[in-house]
Design brief:
The longest helix has 20 residues, at 169-188. It is globular, with a radius of gyration of 20 Å. The protein contains 13 helices and 10 strands. By secondary structure, it is an alpha/beta fold. 54% of the residues are buried. Its EC number is 2.3.1.9.
Length: 380
């Protein structure tokens, strides 16, 4: 099987809902990272064979195949197509998988994997309002027969994880505080500078809170009486975009490209849709089995911090070290712009492996419907 290499990886800063990026049209956010990726890699943009972009809430300014719209908005060649995909929060990690698979299959040589989401402009759940207006449900009769007419939500899933693994509010808040501390350290040390392309006057991730503390977190109300989950231990709603260039060995030679990493292993799994957020556990196990690597062979982990119990339970079940996980903070501190997060995490992982000299990195994230992707990359 042919190899797939990551040649370039770039992202915007991750903005808050009221920050500098809030008013930037998502097609323009996507266009910005696509143009920057082309410029940084020096690739002839007409040689790109497809642009695969993740975006979750494909309504309003994010509708109409935003991958194609973003590419054209960037002033890039009309001859290059684009496709927008939705695997919920893992959409742009799946974009990376599809791009790598196209190259590994030998049917393509240069593909861009990207993601974009402006949650300030198109809020999470906006599509649910449309469903309600139509007077229908997203659950068909077969679903109800199988799982019952119970509440299905990421918030309930996070609480169910707390109950199953025995995490109390204090456990979650300690984890959340560490996420902010790591993010602030990374920002102050300039660890993100090389991977970020400034946009709308912003050149730094906006979400990390320097003034937060366990005392402040303890003052917040739980999302529901009797629950452990508060806003402090959940990912932030955010704005951002990222893009990676995936190339074959032939493309490396033809276009004189220098790879940063090799896509080593790709997996995607389904898990319990009621718990919803547990997928990273079997996805990681599947990736390790396929790669024939052990958990201790992995130098760095990026596990999306949708909620604190997701990462805590994942580490408990896989035996992964939290010291090697989200070393520069995660979505609790830095934000989670849904369809963009997979590509953002991949960009962070590639650059951190380069910075530290590590060999293997593993990325995984929970996804709506009880799914998860896991990707292992190898620095070259």
């Amino acid at each position: 099987m042919a190899e797939a290499y990551i040649v370039g990886a770039v992202r915007t800063p991750v903005g808050t809902r009221k920050g500098a990026l809030a008013g930037v049209h998502p097609a323009d956010l996507g266009a910005h990272v696509l143009r920057e990726l082309v410029d940084r890699t020096g690739i002839d943009p007409s040689a790109v064979e497809d642009v695969i972009m993740g975006c979750v809430v494909q309504l309003g300014p994010q509708a109409g195949d935003i991958a194609r719209t973003a590419w054209l908005s960037a002033g890039l060649p009309q001859s290059v197509p684009g496709v927008t995909i939705d695997r919920q929060c893992g959409s742009s990690q799946q974009a990376l998988h599809f791009a790598a698979q196209g190259v590994m299959s030998g049917t393509q040589d240069l593909v861009i994997a990207a993601g974009v989401e402006n949650m300030a402009m198109v809020p999470m759940g906006a599509n649910a309002a449309v469903v309600k207006e139509l007077g229908v449900s997203t659950k068909g009769g077969g679903w109800v027969e199988r799982y019952g007419d119970q509440e299905i939500s990421q918030f309930r899933g996070a609480q169910l994880m707390c109950e199953k693994w025995g995490y109390g509010r204090a456990d979650l808040e300690r984890f959340a505080l560490e996420s902010h501390r790591r993010a602030i350290r990374a920002i102050d040390e300039g660890r993100f500078a090389g991977q970020i392309t400034p946009v709308a006057g912003a050149d730094t991730d906006e979400g990390a809170r320097r003034d937060t503390s366990l005392e402040q977190m303890a003052k917040l109300k739980v999302l529901r009486e009797g629950w452990e989950i508060t806003a402090a231990v959940a990912s932030q709603m955010s704005v951002g975009a990222a893009a990676l260039l995936i190339a074959s060995e032939e493309a490396l030679r033809t276009h004189n490209l220098t790879p940063l990493a090799r896509v080593h292993t790709l997996t995607v799994v389904g898990d319990d849709p009621v718990y919803m957020l547990t997928g990273p556990i079997p996805a990681t196990q599947a990736a390790l089995n396929r790669s024939r690597l052990g958990i201790d062979d992995i130098d760095l982990f990026e596990v999306n911090e949708a909620f604190a119990p997701v990462v805590l339970a994942w580490a408990h079940e896989t035996g992964a070290s939290l010291e090697k996980t989200n070393v520069n903070g995660g979505a609790i501190a830095l934000g989670h712009p849904l369809g963009a997060t997979g590509a953002i995490l991949a960009t962070k992982l590639v650059h951190e492996l380069q910075r530290t000299g590590g060999r293997y990195g593993l990325q995984t994230m929970c996804e709506g419907g009880g799914q998860a992707n896991a990707t292992i990359i190898e620095r070259v």
